[in-house]
Give the backbone structure.
Amino acid sequence: MESQDLIRIPTSILDELKKQLEKFILDDKKPAGYDEALRYVALQRATTSQLAKLNSFANHFESTSPGHIEKHKILDKMVTFAKNWVAQDKRKKELSNKVRNDSNHPTGANTKNQTGREVDRLSKPSLASLKPTKVNEAELLKECERIMCIIKFIKYY
């Protein structure tokens, strides 16, 4: 569900998107990227998958395609934000993996071992943990009387 995580778009980028939208608000034919920019301004958030798509768009930008040029003009600041966010997220994940792999963390992904967590599944299970503890009879009776009073109180009101 990582692709559905919402990332807050900074106000400076939202302001820039609003300026771009105002240029084309009265045009009958909206340029490519207009609806996408409108969605970002309306929600003020973007999913991680949307940012990844914008990053991919920036990496595969074609300067000969008029649709790409229009979209890039409108979403210029948003594309820059997406590129930076994706790069930062990638660095964060790499660092997290490096720390986990380089340490003796019990759930190291590189070996899938769990040192210190040995379970003998062939021996008979022990029911020692299921034995009830000693119950204080006097306290139990007090609690039962209290519950009965509450039930009577509720019944009459």
Q: What stands out?
A: Residues 18 and 103 are 47 Å apart (CA to CA). Residues 76-102 form the longest helix (27 residues). Helices lie at 11-23, 34-43, 48-59, 66-74, 76-102, 137-156.
